[in-house]
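Sample intake sheet
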Amino acid sequence: QVQLAESGGGLVQPGGSLRLSCTASGFTVSTYSMRWYRQAPGKEREGVAAIGATGDVAPYPDSVKGRFTISRDNAKNTVYLQMNDLRPEDTAVYYCNRNTYWGQGTQVTVSS
């Protein structure tokens, strides 16, 4: 059974950092493309990072380029999203994704 469990969200001040984790079960993350999405209230879900099965990283959208980094730990079967220099507009629920499978999401709030 495929399951994705996000963690690491929270409240952070502008300019701060968070690292989100997506721990997978029921499959091996190194054999699939994995993605992070986010959805802010009243907005559509937005893709923010993707890593391929071979470890190649897709170009980041301009909204997070230079601040967010996706990575993978095959031994832990976990995908990470390192988020630096966070801004209030990064406030959203962040989701891990593999094809049609989604985690439950983790809330990130950037506020002073």
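Comment: The CA atoms of residues 8 and 20 lie 5 Å apart. The first strand starts at residue 3 and ends at 7.
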